Structures are given as structure tokens and as C-alpha cells.
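Archive entry: two folds, one per protein. Generate the first.
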Amino acid sequence: MTLLNTSLKWLLQRRLPRIEAMKKDPGAVQQRVFSQLIQAGARTQWGRQHHYKSIKTVADFQRQVPVSNYEDLFPYIERVMMGEAKVLWPSPVRWFAKSSGTTNARSKFIPVTPESLDEGHFKGGKDMMALYVANRPDSRTFEGKGLSIGGSLQASPYAVNSAAGDVSAVVMKNLPSWAQFIRTPSVDVALMEEWESKLDRMAEITKDQNVTSMLGAPTWGLVLIDKILAQTGKQNILEVWPNFELLVHGAVNFQPYRDLFRQQVFPSNSVHYQEVYNASEGFFAIQDDMGRPGEMLLMLDYGIFYEFVPLAESNQPYPKALTIEEVELDTNYAIVVSTNGGLWRYRVGDTVRFTSLYPHRLKVSGRTKHFINAFGEEVIVENAEIAITRACEATGAVISDYTAGPVYMGNGKSGGHEWIIEFAKEPVSMGRFEQVLDQTLREINSDYDAKRYNDYVLRPPRIHAVPRGTFYAWMKQRGKLGGQHKVPRLANTREYLDDILGKVLER
């Protein structure tokens, strides 16, 4: 075992007492974070507007500050992007995490402050490996390289001396030199903007390296691995990376891919899997027990104050919001965060369900709205409605009902979206309908567009035109007839697709 591997594991294990203390007294930890955030926020224009100096308790905070969507905060974020100081956070802001999902623009831009990098993303990366080593004391992962696939960075569209990009790219660009030393490929390759060239170059570099771990969305990982296998002629990636040990995954639901990775990609019991919940808004949770797939420990000392809103109240400006000490098991909550990145009572858009208390472990149970995010594309209902409307206009079609969901990657094939549509009037050309639907989604959703690039992750959508009355019969069979029941437009699983298609085939 190398000296570097031994030394890094020893250093990481020193982080565990702090994590154990957080587990035992989560309320005190969150109260300390809350006080620090309010003190910092009082020095901002937002804080003065909402009278932060008078806030003494969480109840005061919840009474004085409304819960916000991105659209609510965008006027302030736009001022930050134009270079205005101390609008949402007192520290200078040079970086912005870019993601899709907003309802008023193609992309949204989340401020990334020095504090959110140091106290959140970097701290989370260290704790992630500390918790893994605690589960696998014999780990040799630091004897090789950690492979990470980043996005890309572009100059800010507003101000000089600032940049925007995928949160992974922002983090990677700012990593300290010691962290750069143990990862691959180099930053200039990892952040290349042109995806085809980047993946080709990454494959060329990493096929000859001792890669022992990989971090990133499993969908992009599959694309890269397929390229490496094509270049090397090997049957599986363990023939290329025989010492591979750990896949750290996040961003999309891993469950549909679990069997694929275990049986085909990494066919070995010596490969382990760890989930993280790291979003543009902050680093939230880490799987601390490798025997609990899908469950993650909520990290409460990363400069983020959490509130949990029952779904029935999730769209209210001043909803009933629970602190970490008030949550219950097996209840779906919408997450609201206040962060050291300058987000205040911000709706993340995710729903979570706690699987244990003390320690507080959770599962990401979905989104507050219907969506498809099987590949990191974050297609929301509004995206689908716009695309459907344009496709109908272009082809003379009229739609009665529809639903859509994912087709998962596997057997060397990219994934995709599958649509079931009941037409009141058929399009003059189904091919043209599919083309406009796809192109519109690419125009209005930057994450979908990235995944559709050269069909690497997403191939063009597939549409099933079903007979009139299909959705009515399906809803009736489910006991869901009536004005309060609606056909689910989007789903992140194949539950509705397979059920409906099964019924159509039976008929």
C-alpha cells in the first residue's frame, strides 16, 4: 500500500468525530448555521430589505422572509451577475452554477460564493471519501486516479471577471492543487466545451491510467466507458481498470442502472457504489452506510439551513415549514434552503423522505412537479407543453392526452424519451411531429440539449400514437376518473408507460 494512500486515509478519518457529533445533536448544529447566516445576511441589501437585524429566532425568520422560487430571486441574482456587490451575500461572487429547470428562461444561474465552495462543495468531497473509507478501511482507492467528468465554463453573459457553468465544472476549476493531483483527466481536458472531442480525449487518456474511482452522473459515465471499450477492444471496463473500486454517483436516479452496472459494467463484488446529493444550490447529503443504497446522511454543517415543507403547502409563500428536529419518518417534504451562497428560503424543487432520525438519513423521492430527469435532463411539464404545442402547430395535429417517461440506457445503446399520445387529429407527418418536438425541447432546455448531443446519452424521442379512449379507459381502470384526477404528464420511471402500453397491447 502506497504512502499516499495510507496518509490520505489517516487524514480523512480525522473528520469522522465531527460528523458523529453532528449526527447526535443536529438541532444545535443547524441553530449555529442559522445564526451565522443571519449575521452575514444582515450586511446585504436583501437582509436590510427583510430586516435581518431584528431576526432573533427561526420563527422570526419564517415570519419576515417569504419562501422563494428562482423567478422570485432572479432580479437579485441578475444584479449580482452584473457585478453589484452585497446584494444577496456579503462576499464577492465570481462563479455561477448553471442549470435548467426554470420556467422563465432556458437556464438558471445560481451564485457560488467562496464560502459555499469551501464550507460546502469542498467539505462535502472530503467527507464523502472519509465516510467511504470508514466503510472500507482496506480501501486502496488513492493508489490510483479518481476520474471525474465535468461540464464546461463560459464567460458570464453579464459581467467581466466572472464565469458560469455546470456546478461540477465550477468546483473542478477551483480545486486545490493536492486534489488536482489525485484526479484525472487534467482540468483543461475535463472542462472542454465540445463534448465529442472531450469524451474522445478523456477515453484516450484514461484507458492507459490506473483509474480506481469515478465521480459523476452514471449516464455520462456509460458513454465514456463505451468509448474506452471501443478503443481498447475489451469486453468490460475492469479489463482496462483492474483496480477500479468505487463509483460515486448522483444527479439522476441510480436504481434503473444498478443491475446494469453490477452485472455488465463492473461485474465484480469488489466494486462499491456511493450516492451523493450535490446540487447547484449546495452539497446536501452523502451515503454514509454502503449497506443502505439510496439513503443518504443529511450534512447539516455546510453553511445551509434546512426547512422541510409538507407537500400540501409547498406552493404557499409562507408555508408551515419544519426544522430538522421536527421532521417525521416516511413523509414527503419539499426542501427549502437558506445558504452561504446567498439563497434565502429557496425552493430547491426536490422532495425528500426521511428513512431514519438521529442520524437523519433521507431519500430523494421526486420533484415538486412532474418531470423526467433519468439522465440529468430535467425536463419539466412546462417544457413538454411548449414542445407539444409547437409540434401540433407545425403538423396540424390536435392532442387529447399524453404522458412521457424514460427509456433507460443499456446494452451499448443510448437512452431516450418515450411518449404515448392520444391524438384527436393525427399529424400530417409523424416524423415531422417528432422532429419539432425534439428540436423545441433542445431550444428551451439546455440540459436536454446537452444530453441529445450526437445521440450520446439521449436518442430522438419515440412516439406511440394510441387509439381514442385509451387514456380514459386507463384512468377508469385505476379508479381515477373525475375532475380532481389528471393524467400524469411526465414521470421519471416507466410505471405509467409500461402500464398503458400493456393495456393497449391487451386490447
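Generate the second and append.
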Amino acid sequence: MKATRSVVIGLVSVAAALAAGHLVAGLISPLASPFLAVGNTAIDLTPHPVKDFAIRTFGENDKLVLLGGMAVVLAGLGVVAGLLSRRSPWPGTVLAGALGLLGVAAVLARPTSTTWAVVAPLASLVAGVLAFRWLWSREKPAEEPGRRRFLASTAAIAAGAGVAALGGQWLAGRVDVEASRRAITLRPRVKAPEIPFDADFVREGTPPFMTPLDKFYRVDTALSIPRLRAEDWRLRVHGMVDNEMVLTYDDLLRRPLEEKTITLVCVSNEVGGPYISTANFIGVSLPDLLRDAGVRPGADQLATRSVDGWTCGTPVESIMAPGSNAMLAIGMNGEPLPLERGFPVRMVVPGLYGYVSATKWLVDMELTTFDAFDPYWVQRTWAKKAPVKTMSRIDRPKSFERVPAGKFVAAGIAWAQHTGIDRVEVRVDGGPWQETTLSTEVNVDTWRMWRIELDLKEGNHTVECRATDRKGYTQTDQRAAPIPDGATGWHSMVFTSVAGS
């Protein structure tokens, strides 16, 4: 058999296997797709230094890079299967079967898998093996009719794979979540105060105080955004409580809705990183809900679960503390949560990094203890408790930017949730610290902007910043990586001042 035709057989068989699994998963559950299951398992098993590198390098495109890399690897394996089977179909058959079994194992390993979920990877296994064997049997290069038969068979399977893949995608999206979302009207009894005009220095380089929804950072483990309608949503509250509850979305709407301006920050944020945003969240009081459930003595952790199986653990004392502003959020910036931000319901607990406080697509809350349960990231050696650290960032100048010599305004942001920022200082080229001008504070659970006018000589410069909170703590200059409980260190920028405007 010619090498080219062997490669075609391998590639088309891989496509048939993936498409069959995707089609069946569309009928059962999108999360049963073997391609996505393998991807999610890869995320779970990847060492956190590699995850940090992916987030740092690819940002919010890290999942697309993973899926693209998986596609390349599978295509490569298809090529290998074809080349190994030029004389006999058995090497390719064994490799196709092994890949199918890998998909079965990945689906079974998912925390939300049901008994029926295994049908999707089994369909993938069968389709891949049958396609490979059939195409191999149709390839007879010495006969002109055989060549035509082979081309027709290959085209038919490739076309069938395309139709199956599109069908699976359509079935996965048949639940009209956007219609459910559009039907919701949110009327908070308590609205967030108006943002003062001087809450930011956006004209001088800071971000706008309120982050538009399409610019709000996203860091999570979901390869495929869960699609759950509000009318189908249920939240079970159980564990160490006096009154177990199952809440519907309408139950939340009947509770007093409040709107609060809150800044969220991800623990993956490097010093000076972009994973921090601010929005008006609309929701119900989480402390009030837990009081209704009756938290029993000794319960020190609220274990929460997403519909896709991701788990989170939040200190009960942080939720129940006076002024915690912890909530079950159902809206952002005046509208229901976008799908990628956690629709229908997510958790928001200011003052804690997201991996211990911000479960999206929330469906389960269990009152338990830190000794009894380790959530997703704690199982991977991250800290059990992770309060947000006092930090600051330079937004202007940018790294290696060329700016005019003379008078120049540097600007940035700082945050110290639950405490508030007292001052931000800047120094140039290791000189004396200079106090900046702070924007008007909105509340202690949000970021605060700063600006300072510098007098710069021509040449290369390094500017650094540090923040001090209202408890008197000044952020340390000692650099620490984001894991296990948040980055530390002063942010700095190297830039050049040049003559002229």
C-alpha cells in the first residue's frame, strides 16, 4: 500500500471516531464527548507549573491551544497507524482500539459521568476501528476499479464524519440557554451606588473602573461552557445543616436581591498580571441563605460543586463575617450572568481568590470541614485558605515604551479587599519613594486607581510601585509565584524617555 493512502486511511478513521463520539455525546451529554473528556482529564493531570505556564503564555486562549494540540496529536497518531498498517491492518486496528479505550477511561473518570455516558466513547471506538478496517480492505492499487472504490469510500466516510460532527454540535447546543437568559428580568431592591467620575484615571492609562462584560477576565477549567437553563437549575444545600434545602432559580428571585460593586482577582495573577476585573454583581446574600439552612457547630468549610464536577472550598468564617458581601450572584452589570461567567448562578466572596470562592455554574453546596474534604485545587497542593493579598500594578508606562522626557504621568491600580488602600508609592531608578494621588474610593472590596506626575530625564528608566493598606501593611518586595496562595512582589516597568513629543 502506498504511504499516501495509508496516511489518508489513518486520518479519516480518526475523524470518523471523533465525529461518532461527538454525535452520541450530543444525544447523551456534551461532557461525554471523548475528545472533551480526554482534554478535561489532561487538565486535571497536568502539573500546576505547566498550567501556570499555559495561563501566562496563552492567557484565556489556553483551552483553545490545548484542544488544538490534542487535534494535532490525534492526527499524528492517525498517520502513524496508517503507516504501520501498509502490509497488515492489525497495527492500526490495535492503535485505534487503544485510543478508543483511552476515551472510555477518560469519560468514566469524569466526576459527573453517568452510566450512559460511556456509550459515546464506545461509539467512537467502534466507528474508528470499523472505518480503519473497511478503508484498508477497499485499497487495491493494482486495480483501477479498486482505486475508484477506495476514493469513493474515503470520501463517503469523510463526509459522514463531517455530518456527524455538525450533528453532535447542533445537539449539544439544542438547549436554548440564551432564550432562558433573555427571559430573566432582574430588579434588585438595593442598587449599587453610582460610580464617582473620579474613581479612575482612564485618560491617563488606568483601566475603566467598571470592567465591560466582554473584557472581564476568565480563568477556569471548563473546556466546554456548561449550558444549563435557569428553569432547570437546582441548588442542593446539605451537609452539616439543620434544614437541607433544594432551591430553584425562582426561589432566588423571591429573595431580596442586592447589587454590589466587587473586584475579583485570580490566584493565577502574576505580579502586574491582567486577571483582575470589577463589576456590579446582583444576587442574594449567602450568609442569610446559610442562616436559613442552619449551620451546625464545627462546620468550617462550604464545599461547592459546579455542574461539570469542579469543586471549591470556602471558609465559613469568611462568608459569615460581618460585611463579607458574600453572595450567590445571578447578574453582572445590570443583566443576567453571561454563560461563560457562570449562568445561571455563581458564587462571589470578596477578599478571597477565585479558586476558593467563585464557583461558576453552581449546583451543590455542602457544609463540611476542612479535615473532611479537599476540593479540586487543594488536591493539587494549593492552599486551603487564600485571602487576596495587598498588591499594586503599573498600567502606564508599558514595558519598553518610549515616552516624552520631562513631565510624564504614570498610573496604575491597587487593591486590598476588606481593608482598603491607604496609599500607593512609586520610585524611579531606585530613588526615593514618592506618594501618588489616589482616585476616589468606591468601597473596600474594589480596586483603587493611582496617578503621579514624574519629571523624567532622557534615557532608560525603571519605575516600581508598592501599596499600603489601612492596616498599615506595605506589600513586600519579595517575589513569590502565584501558587500556592497568590503572588507577591513589587511591580516594575522598564521604559525609555526620549526628547520631543
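Annotation attached to the second fold: The mean pLDDT is 90. Residues 144-172 form the longest helix (29 residues).
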